[in-house]
Amino acid sequence: MVLNTRTKGLLFVIAGAIFWGVGGTVAQKLFQDFSINVNWLVTVRLLLAGTLLLLLQASRKNASRVFSVWRSKKSAMQMIVFGLAGMLAVQYTYMASINHGNAAVATLLQYLAPVMIIIYLLTRRLTVFTRQDAVTFTLALSGTFLLLTNGSLSQLSVPVAAITWGLLSGVALAFYTLYAVPLLKEYDSIVVVGWAMIIGGLSMAFIHPPWQADFAAFTPEIYAYLLFVILFGTMFAFWFYIESLRYLVPKETSLIGNLEPLSAVLTMVVWLQEPFGVYQFVGVACIILMTLFVAFSQKSPIKAPPTAKADPLRA
Predict the structure, then answer these.
(1) Which end of the chain, N or C, is more open, meaning fewer C-beta atoms within 10 Å of its C-beta?
(2) CA-to-CA distance for 219 and 238, rounded, in angstroms?
(3) How far apart are CA 144 and CA 115, in angstroms?
(4) DSSP alpha helices (H): ranges in 231-297?
């Protein structure tokens, strides 16, 4: 069966969001139960996942394409900016928020990114807001809020550090989503994501070298969790998310990405056996409805006008 481009985009972003959400919960377990250092985890996961992606690209196609992004001074600079202000920023702020709080709070704050994207594009007059957009936006935010708070603001009483890092992760995810678009027009998504991870990982290596860890204390269980975080929670999650931008507009990818908090919370309930309230079930319903609404709509949830320029950050 041949899938159309929109269906491909939906499948990529849904799979990426699920992997990302579950990966956050696994990272929480590593921090809380095994005292894994957040700086070390970010360094290792970025370096290994980035290397694996570039090796995958080299094995699939002409190996020279792996280095194509560095042949132009303009694309090389864009790649460095994306690796530091996009990939590394998203990774570190999200992990730091989990480390200081938990995966649920970190995910909730990170998913303010669609709000930031919409405000940015509306301010730059690169999009219009419709009733369909309002429904999608309301379902997404309401579902995320109910799912992660069970309808009580008091459950957001978390350390200031967790809130700060979580808000910064929302800003980073918004930038990451928008800034990737021009790079994807010229280069394969695997190349873009792979190099961004390596750039971010090398930068973090100066703060916490990957070889500085108490490996003698690592159990098979820890290695299994690390492998999941590196492969599914990082490599496949980011690759699928960035690949979806080839087929969907950035705001659509961000809104459907609200499946991430759904997968994160359900994993915490089933695996970590945390309580699940009535309002959280309502939140699950809202997110599922939002995803179906976006998936079966004939147009993107928030569609840019025909006169909008292709690169929103340079318009």
Answers:
(1) N
(2) 27
(3) 13
(4) 237-244, 250-256, 259-270, 278-296
3-class SS of residue 310: coil
Q: Tell me how many degrees the CA angle 83-87-93 measures, rounded to the nearest 5.
A: 130
pLDDT band of 26, cuts 50, 70, 90: very high
At residue 312 the predicted structure's pLDDT band, cuts being 50, 70 and 90, is: very low
Distances (CA, A) of 229 to 46, 99, 223: 10, 15, 10
Of 196, 299, 300, nearest to 253 by C-alpha is 300
Q: What is the residue whose two structure tokens read 């690796």?
A: 83
**Domain-by-domain residue ranges, the chain?**
5-296
Q: How far apart are CA 133 and CA 161, in angstroms?
A: 33
In this structure, the chain runs to a length of 315
- 261 in the Ramachandran plot: left (φ > 0), alpha (ψ -120 to 50) or beta? alpha
Backbone torsions φ then ψ of 201, nearest 5 degrees: -65, -40
Quick one: pLDDT at residue 255? 66
φ and ψ at residue 126, rounded to 5 degrees: -105, 0
3-state secondary structure of 98: helix
